[in-house]
Design goal:
The chain is an all-alpha fold. It contains three helices and no strands.
Length: about 80
Amino acid sequence: MFAVRGWEFWVREIVDEALGTYELTSRMDAMQLAQSRDRITQYLDKLISAGQADPHQLTEYARAYLKEMHEGRDPRFTGC
């Protein structure tokens, strides 16, 4: 499933950490949690496929992606 074999464990850990951090400030129902987990996993797979290999950076990306999914884009950033 993942582009780089052996990353499955790390991706699971990163997703769990990102979700755990976000759940402290926002309560999600079971369906939102499952959808968020799937989308973050797919996002991380793309980043790993593109060569990103730093687990700490991947965790930050996962947190930012999760926040954007549930709270919308930050209007301060144009996406450029």
